[in-house]
Design brief:
alpha/beta, Urease, subunit C, domain 1, TIM Barrel, 2 domains, 4-stranded parallel sheet, binds zinc ion
């Protein structure tokens, strides 16, 4: 891994100095993520940041001067997307961006940061491609520092207008938004033509969020409750609790007990109707199973000793340590058992909605405790398969479905004319999803940025 990182630092240190070179990957098996098949013995020619040609090797011409990469017995997948990261805080891009690229994550969707939209724009010319929300938009007592706090509909409209003027890519809605503020955000976002995505606020239902046009639902928040036959009374109970000024902390035990109640009152017919609503509105689900797994492992010492904690800036390490210490102090064995039950249920729901044609995205919440840059995306892919998705479907969640969701038609698949973000693997990911970690070469923006 060390030589790999040096390569990437070298690539990052001189962005834009040289034109992207001509590359030819010869005799490679191209993974068609959309059809879930492998096309063997192909030659892929890359130049000027784009895929120029994809054809059978025996009839492909390799352009003069091209650097040839032998693809024999190797597999080429589109560059991966992590659809839920927090990677733009101070000191973080320097640490995380090389790791994203080393692990084949060539695009990220940043779901909340305190870096200014102008500061984000300055990061967009190198490293992974970035789609970013800028700050969270949350209720009057926000969960995350750096959020925009809104109390009512007029605050909410002003927040959307200001973010649009600053050039964010989308609006991130958060858990504590008052109901009328949320409705106003949806309306204002439609008027301004900007997407909004994020958490389903506690006092809104997943049905309403989908009908309001929320583009993605993160962590499956609100979805479990929406699948319960007892949803209405849980919403009412939560609405009462949220009227409390200190709602952010006082609602957590209620959330867990409600989630367990929602498991016990799961209504498959109602869930199937919800899937139809999501499909009709093209609402995507970003389950972040790796994040849910992390929440179930608070008491696991081996898990907390993960050597990847060296990858994060010191200040973030302190935030993580404090957060985990707080959880270890406050959480009972019953809480941890509940979190494990919830993880199982979220995996079941992921499969349930995927099988019914709802778009599923691969996100990690990297930047949150024990969600790591690059490597955790591969853990998420494995969890999606463990949940019951095929390896091809899991790959689509991080490639073609992610790119289509973001409206990036030039990314997400391997075909002539597409932008050249691709990852060369030593083994077939359609046979075993863990093979996505067997990375030989990463090409980002048409340039080799990593490999062994
Ligand atoms: Zn997040």
């Amino acid at each position: 891994m060390h030589s790999l990182l040096i390569l990437i630092f070298a690539a990052l240190s001189g962005p834009g100095i040289q034109r992207a070179p001509l590359l030819a990957i010869r005799n490679v098996a191209v993974v068609d993520v959309e059809r879930g098949v492998v096309r063997p013995h192909m030659t892929v020619v890359i130049g000027d940041g784009r895929i120029i040609a994809v054809g059978k090797s025996w009839r492909s011409r390799i352009p003069d001067g091209a650097q040839v990469i032998d693809g024999t017995n190797r597999f080429l997948i589109p560059g991966l997307w992590d659809m839920h990261v927090h990677a733009l805080f101070d000191e973080v891009p320097e640490k995380f961006f090389p790791l994203f690229l080393a692990y084949g994550v060539t695009s990220i969707r940043d779901m909340g940061t305190d870096r200014s939209p102008a500061g984000i724009a300055a990061l967009k010319s190198s490293g992974p491609r970035i789609h970013a929300a800028g700050p969270w938009v949350d209720g009057p007592h926000p969960v995350n520092p750096g959020s925009i706090a809104v109390s009512n509909a007029s605050d909410a409209r002003a927040a959307v207008d200001s973010l649009v003027a600053q050039g964010v890519d989308f609006i991130k809605v958060y858990s504590l938004l008052p109901r009328d503020a949320y409705v106003a955000i949806a309306d204002e976002a439609h008027r301004k033509g900007i997407p909004f995505a994020g958490h389903v606020p506690e006092t809104v239902t997943a049905w309403e969020a989908s009908e309001a046009g929320q583009r993605s639902i993160e962590h499956l928040y609100g979805v479990l409750r929406a699948c319960s036959s007892d949803e209405a009374s849980m919403l009412e109970e939560m609405t009462h609790r949220m009227a409390d000024a200190d709602a952010a902390t006082s609602a957590v035990p209620l959330l867990i007990s409600q989630s367990l109640h929602a498991i016990d009152t799961f209504d498959a017919g109602k869930a199937a109707m919800l899937a139809e609503v999501f499909k009709r509105n093209r609402t995507a689900l970003d389950p972040t199973l790796i994040w849910h797994r992390t929440r179930a492992r608070t008491a696991d010492d081996a898990f907390l000793a993960d050597p990847r904690t060296r990858q994060i800036p010191d200040w973030m390490g302190e935030v993580w340590a404090n957060r985990m210490a707080g959880r270890r102090k406050s959480e009972t064995p019953a809480d941890i058992a509940a979190r494990k039950r919830l993880l199982d249920r979220y995996m079941m729901l992921t499969r349930f909605f995927a099988e019914r044609g709802v778009v599923v995205l691969a996100g990690t919440d990297t930047g949150e405790p024990y969600c790591f840059p690059g490597s955790s995306l591969h853990e998420e892919l494995a969890l999606l398969v463990e949940a019951g998705l095929s390896p091809a479907r899991a790959l689509r969640a991080a490639t073609s479905d992610a790119a289509a969701f973001m409206g990036e038609r030039d990314l997400g698949t391997i075909a002539a004319g597409k932008r050249a973000d691709v990852v060369l693997l030593d083994a077939n990911p359609l046979v075993d999803i863990h093979n996505t970690t067997k990375i030989r070469t990463v090409i980002s923006r048409g340039v080799i940025t990593g490999g062994r």
